[in-house]
Design a protein that fits this description.
Length: 135
């Protein structure tokens, strides 16, 4: 029996990007309404102002495809974490222009406005695009 030669691994395998010929990436769109567009939906603004945590747990979380306890669990990490996560998730799913740093800054300085904006965006998706937001 002959001894086997051992060749140590000196580098990791590299990933190769897969390109689809003739297919362009989808164009990113703007939010349907601005962060300060609360007057476009007075009822939603009032609901968020007076019942913000309950509205976030019961309504927004369910519409985002999350459990109602998600804001409570993520709230242990900080009060804005849930809204940042929901904003990033909504942007990624519906190809809305933005960045994580803008999501963080906007949410930290205007959390209630962001919660209203998320609600308005989901209303827009349901009404204008004719589908229930799918996550």
């Amino acid at each position: 029996m002959q001894p086997q030669t051992v060749h140590p691994v000196t580098s990791q395998p590299q990933a190769y990007p897969i390109a689809v010929v003739g297919q362009q990436p989808p164009q990113q769109r703007q939010w349907n309404s601005g962060v300060c567009g609360c007057f476009e939906d007075i009822c939603g603004c009032c609901l968020t102002y007076w019942c913000g945590p309950c509205e976030l747990c019961c309504c927004v979380s369910e519409r985002m495809g999350e459990q109602c306890c998600t804001p409570i669990c993520l709230g242990c990490l900080g009060s804005s974490v849930t809204l940042i996560a929901y904003r990033v998730k909504l942007r990624a799913r519906y190809n809305i222009r933005g960045s994580i740093i803008s999501d963080c800054c906007t949410t930290v300085f205007c959390g209630s406005c962001v919660q209203c904006q998320i609600k308005r965006e989901m209303d827009y998706i349901e009404n204008q695009l004719g589908c229930k937001p799918a996550f």
